[in-house]
Amino acid sequence: MSNPPGNGSGHGERDGDGRLPGPPNVTLVDVLIENLGQRGGDGGNQRRGYDAFHRLDPPIFKVTKDPLDVDHWIRIIEQKFGLMECDDYEKVTLAAHQLDDAAGAWWQGYLTQQERDHRVDWAEFKAAFRAHHFPAGLMELKADEFRNLKQGNKSIIEYTSAFNYLSQYALYEVSSDPKKQNCYLRGLSLRIQDRLSVASCANFNALVSKAIKVESKMLELDAETHKRVATPPHGGTSSQRPHTGATPPPRVPSYGAPQPMWMVRNQGA
């Protein structure tokens, strides 16, 4: 016997076999649309908005050991928002859908700490997200790592890559091109610093290009010097050491110690 129309999903009602019906099949998309529809907008338009966001392939954020991944994720998400129409509350709903594992658990915990009728906007979401995944203490440690960066045994290419990466933690140190050049020069090897000290570079990229050329020429000179040291003069292979001092006096032959006279007479008898 079928249920009367409109009552098929009633809670507590049993079916013909006496079993309680399962929970309604609510998808995550339905939940998002319900949240997006709090402003009273058309559900169909809201669904199309979510579908449009999903087609943009927004990245999932789980957990990271690199704090820069936090800002990178936010930048990508905001780029996706720029391709669609959504307000600051819809942005939070859509972005939160992309949080998984530890990040998703953090978000659920953050929401439970808010007042029941409080709605988180995009600015609040970003501030809370950064504060949790990118604490100020870690930011300062990375900034110190940038300030203490030295070329050491790294090539110019390797040093430049490390410089550009770590400079993201200390943007105030490289806020202008001259400041960036000074920071870069400070970490170079002393030999390359000496060569570049008399050079004038229009911008940071020109300085890097000049440093690469200086390094290449220095490597060529070092290889040539090593080759000359390893090759004997005039191509000779003699192992004789060159004469460097005065001629020593002639050696006097030794005939042994003088013998007593009685031994000499006995030998002649």
From TrEMBL:
Q: Which InterPro entries match?
A: Retrotrans_gag_dom, RTL1-rel
Q: Name one Pfam family in it.
A: Retrotrans_gag
Domain of life the protein comes from: Eukaryota
Give the residue ranges for region: Disordered.
1-24, 227-260
Q: Where in this chain does the record put each Retrotransposon gag domain?
A: 94-189
Q: Specify the protein name.
A: Retrotransposon gag domain-containing protein
Please name the source species: Paspalum notatum var. saurae
